[in-house]
Amino acid sequence: MIIKLKLLLAIIIPCIILSVLSGCFDAREIDDLAYPMAIGLDKGDDNLLKITLQLAVPVAIAGGGGEEAPGGGGGTSTIVTIEAPAIYSGINMANTFISKQINLSHAKVIVFSEELAKEGIGKYISAIARGREFRPSMFVMVAKGSAEEYIRAVEPALEANPAKYYEMKLRAFDYTGFTTDATFTRFYHNIKSTAAQSYAILASVSKFDSSKDIDNDESTYLEKGRDIPFEGDFKAGSMPKVGDIKSEVMGLAVFDGDKMVGELDGGKTTSHLMVMGGFNYAFITIPDPIKEGFYVLINTSQRRNPEVEVSMVNNSPHISVKVLLEGDILSIQSGINYEDVDKLKVLEDGAEEFFKEEISHYLTKIIEEYGVDICGFGNNMKRNFLTWREWENFNWLNKFKNSTFDVEVDLKIRRPGLMMRTMPVPDSKGDED
Amino acid sequence: MVDFIKTVKDFFAFKEPKEIEQFVLKEDENEKPKPEEKSDKKQKPKQKESFISKLTSNNHQKEKEKEDKAEDEKSVGISKDINENLEHIKKVYNIPDNGDLVIREFEIVAKDKSLNAFIILFDGMSDSTIINSSILQPLMLLSNVEVKGKENDLALYIRNHLIPHNQVKMVEKISDIIDEVNFGGSGLFIDGIDKAYACDTKGWLQRSVDRPNTEIVIRGPQEAFTEGMRVNTSLIRKTLKDKNLIVENFKIGKRSQTPCSLLYLKDIANESLVDEARRRLENINVDFIFDSGELEQFLEDSTFLPAPQILATERPDRTSNLITQGKLAVLMHGSPFALIMPITNSDLLHSPEDAYVRFPFSNLFRVVRIIAVLLSLLLPGFYIAITNYHHEMIPTDLLIAIEAAREAVPFPSVMEILMMEFAFELIREAGVRIPGPIGPTLGIIGALILGQAAVAANIVSPILIIVVAVTGIGSFAVPNFALAFSFRILRFVYIILAALAGFLGITLGIFVHGIMLVSAKSFGVPFMAPFGPRTSDGIADQFLRSPIWNQEKRPDYLNVKNQKKQPEISRKWTQKEKKK
Asked: Looking at residues B2-28, what average pLDDT do you find?
């Protein structure tokens, strides 16, 4: 009997303790919470920070209640901007006028303004890393101009859900190569690392209003020595495009410590991905190796992880990178039969030369101009040291700017697409040739 | 106050737990050195005696006396005087009041003597044709024919020559006759003999062998047990044609005297296990017992464990299969379910069909079933936990869908789910009780109220309907009804735990549930074997199913006499090819 009583008590007491001491106290129904999808941080006009929250409106997204036609765009999210001294105090203020409690667990992006990023964002980053509501997988972006403007410009056209919009758009580098997976974990890790530096996705609002205004003033094609800008020779904001979708992401913001020091365009971001081994596939324009003024388009993908070696040569680091790529031919504008075995080699060599040049541009830029190791070459360097202290004393981040490098690219064309052979287009004039 | 403090002190202070004598299925005798085995065997009867003597000494003295008296009455011998016997029978059966007892008086001629005789039987219980043609006719008509019998003893002479019926017992006690008559037999008394004849003339109407109702398979035999025990034993003998199949008879119920049988394979089943089952069956003290469900409750180890510790099956093929593994089966008259013991958790998750379909199919079944178990047990709790505590786990799109769906629902999600689960239980219970002709009405009401109206009226959110529906379907996919029942109960516990503390609560629940299951025993076999105490072939044979030619051993935890089921190579034809 006593045993039974004990057993009963042993079951009941934990239940009571659980329910009385802890039970339910932090239980929140989903519909009692408001979920910001994007958080924007600007430098405040009068206060330290200007916080912009883009809150999802579930009823509008789900199309329930029949209030508004689905896909209405603006109705699916509501945007608020508050000036406050810090992120949490801003959220506290927002809670007073937003009917539901703000929960940050589904925030997809955090956008810093360029101005703030150049001042240094370490204090905000550590606050975010400490808060347990933040998702480590959210993307870190730097908006040229103001973060608030960028978030207000985000108008999902194809989907009702802004969260999905961010997820899809920021994962698009898998098939464009123009941004990277600058997630918060990676960003924070690189900020604290002694072997790598951080980078964030560059975002902006389109600067052209109509197609007549389009110009290539801000394109980087001239410094790369090209006649015309290629698809990657732009940064966010200056893409030659107009349309309903005003917001743009392209390129990277490069950080030295917690301060932004420079920008990379889309093409350099592709090179960054190739060197890091994160490049999936993308359509890439390559100048025709034989006929000038014509282009070959190759669906390029990374065949194998790049081989990166870092060593000390003449007291300065030397980085050697070997990138292994493969490609499918998408288009041959010149009509030269590159599918032919002999000519294939010409095309491959041309493409290798092109990529080698691209990657060299990128490495020159980060080493000589910015002097920040956003690729994490330091991790390859680390293995040359026996103790942590030695490594710390070596001060890699400082030495990186003296690095030299050599690049090797190995590209194999695998498939010619659905055409086996390129034949010239016959017309009435060319019959005799 | 002092008492209270003492209880609290007792609760927290460590005390060595009292040793409770419990049956444990020990390692096979073959695996142990012989002297030990002997001592084991010697000890066991002692334990038994002490156990029984304790039981009886606990009883009040008066009851014991009463019992003795009843015993005396039962052991009344048969008198030579037929009238005395008749009087006695009439007294026992309260003749003027009792309407369906037939007493037929007649005369027979045996050894040139005319003797008075009477036969008693219950109308409707006995087969009149058999009694007429095999008992009455030969006695009354053929007794005149000269029979060359050498016997001097009249009783023996009558048995050997005058009653051509196939099952006749000569008995000396009236109680034996009464038992036989109560069970559809007939009793024949003849003047001048102090013995009577108990003839088995059972002939009541009973259901014929039918298709199984609760354990339906697509591939496999389509027979089920019926209410008649002998029909059931014959069904087993029919499938299990083995000379070592023992059918031991028991009678349970002091007054009902319900016949039961214990079935096992003599050269396979562990002896101590058989002894234990016999001991439990013999020591059930109850007046009446009607169904094996009651018997199960008398036999099982723990009443309060939600999971069943004895498997009830209505399939002769499954019973036979489990008997060949070295388990025991108990059949009971009046119940179309056989009780299998000992069982483990995985037995409850198996269906007889697993063995009949091909290897890939049965593995799919098993995986689906495990998922069904997890769903039916944990899904509602899981839903509550993530929607109340762990929002970051939900994909954002789903989160927004749930949020939009819940927007107009006035109740917290715990209330919502409890309401829906209760409504579902209601439909289930009503579905079983509802008379056949109005059955479809229930379906319509249930579907409309639960599926549509509740959502339309914003009482519950549509996502919750999916949760409840999947849970319900999951619980129907559990092959054992009793196990599904235990999950139905525990599901509510998990819902409450999840509502109290999210995943922490569910973890606590799984922890306590796991401890209960691992410590449980079914006839001395750990309930979670082969996973709880790890024995060989756990994953391959119990969780999943290995190919049939690879199932070489009987379950290790049963400690059977013959571990091997089939040789290493059971498909000899694969071997032949090589030799050539």
From this structure: 74
